[in-house]
């Protein structure tokens, strides 16, 4: 029999880690929106130091020539951007420690359910790979494809964490009453997750275009950026209606079919709320000159949508398996 306190400790660590991953996605969005991605032109140090400088006087006079020779052209020290990127790295390191603690605490499942332990260890290894990928992002001088791959891997890590934690409490999930829900809901939910991933993929392409436009305008004159948006932006904007109505149908069917204390109902409320926030942030980007504060929020909400959808799917899977 597994100690219940140990199980609870594993779940708390897992939930804290999930929150931390979403937080690093938010911080990463802030880094990208503020143009701070090259605030530290090297990795794992920052301007050759473990604690970055606060003033240009702390750097060699020819530091721009030094980094130009290393492949980082137009390196310009900016303390705000440097420390923004450095904070992003610190959060990433913190996630590494949390993932390690989660994997370590999962050893209690070695006898009861080895798959949870193997999942947790796999996640830990993936986070290490994510850190290495982060170094390639810097080495590529923020190549858009590398940034997108870095973000999608973070999304995959969150999904595995959610699954591991849900699997650790499958006895509770089995007791969820989903008998009145239409059988087609599972299929529609899978489609909804696919639509969300497609929308995120299109969003990353829009993000890449915005990065190019921002660089062209030297991150000023934001009110004119929209005039240069590519066609994918308008497809992405229109596609949001399909995502919205598909998820509203799911939430409505859950509302009609379960009692008010059912975890599925609470998740459906959360799903609709997150989608609403994502749409508001998207409209803000479209109509208010791409304000920097809306960009990371829009990215975070998109990732949260998939996370909530995935958790609802797992709940349905275990409840119907029973």
Written overview of the protein:
There is one protein chain. With 322 residues, the chain is an all-alpha fold. It is 72% helix and 0% strand. α1 packs antiparallel against α3 (79-105), α1 (4-33) runs antiparallel to α5 (144-168) and α5 (144-168) packs parallel to α10. The longest helix is centred in the middle third of the chain and has 33 residues, at 184-216. The radius of gyration is 22 Å and the shape is flat. The chain starts with a helix and ends with a helix.
Key terms:
mainly alpha, Four Helix Bundle (Hemerythrin (Met), subunit A), 322 residues, 10 helices
Quick summary:
72% of the residues lie in helices and 0% in strands. It has 322 residues and is mostly helical.
Note the topology:
Elements: H1 4-33, H2 63-69, H3 79-105, H4 114-139, H5 144-168, H6 170-174, H7 184-216, H8 231-257, H9 263-287, H10 294-321
Total count of strands: 0
* Secondary structure category: mainly alpha
Largest sheet: none
Rg, please?
A: 22 Å
Number of domain units: 2
State the helical fraction.
Answer: over 70%
């Amino acid at each position: 029999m597994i100690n219940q306190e140990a199980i609870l400790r594993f779940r708390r660590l897992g939930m804290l880690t999930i929150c931390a991953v979403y937080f690093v996605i938010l911080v990463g969005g802030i880094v990208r929106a503020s143009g701070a991605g090259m605030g530290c032109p090297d990795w794992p140090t920052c301007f050759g130091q473990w604690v970055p400088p606060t003033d240009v006087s702390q750097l060699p006079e020819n530091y721009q020539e030094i980094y130009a020779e290393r492949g980082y052209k137009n390196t310009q020290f900016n303390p705000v951007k440097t420390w923004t990127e450095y904070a992003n790295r610190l959060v990433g390191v913190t996630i590494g420690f949390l993932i390690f603690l989660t994997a370590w605490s999962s050893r209690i499942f070695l006898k009861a359910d080895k798959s949870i332990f193997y999942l947790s260890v796999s996640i830990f290894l993936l986070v290490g790979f994510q850190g290495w990928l982060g170094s390639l992002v810097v080495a590529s001088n923020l190549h858009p494809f590398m940034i997108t791959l870095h973000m999608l891997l973070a999304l995959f890590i969150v999904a595995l964490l959610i699954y591991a934690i849900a699997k650790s409490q499958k006895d509770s999930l089995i007791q969820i009453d989903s008998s009145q829900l239409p059988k087609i809901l599972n299929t529609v939910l899978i489609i909804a997750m696919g639509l969300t991933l497609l929308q995120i993929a299109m969003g990353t392409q829009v993000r890449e275009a915005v990065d190019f436009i921002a660089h062209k305008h030297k991150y000023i004159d934001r009110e004119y950026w929209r005039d240069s948006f590519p066609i994918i932006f308008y497809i992405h904007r229109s596609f949001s209606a399909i995502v919205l109505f598909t998820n509203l149908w799911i939430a409505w069917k859950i509302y009609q079919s379960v009692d008010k204390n059912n975890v599925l109902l609470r998740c459906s409320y959360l799903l609709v709320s997150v989608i609403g926030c994502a749409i508001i942030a998207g409209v803000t980007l479209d109509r208010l000159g791409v304000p920097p504060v809306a960009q990371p929020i829009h990215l975070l909400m998109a990732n949260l949508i998939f996370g909530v959808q995935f958790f609802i799917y797992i709940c349905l899977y275990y409840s119907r398996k029973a």
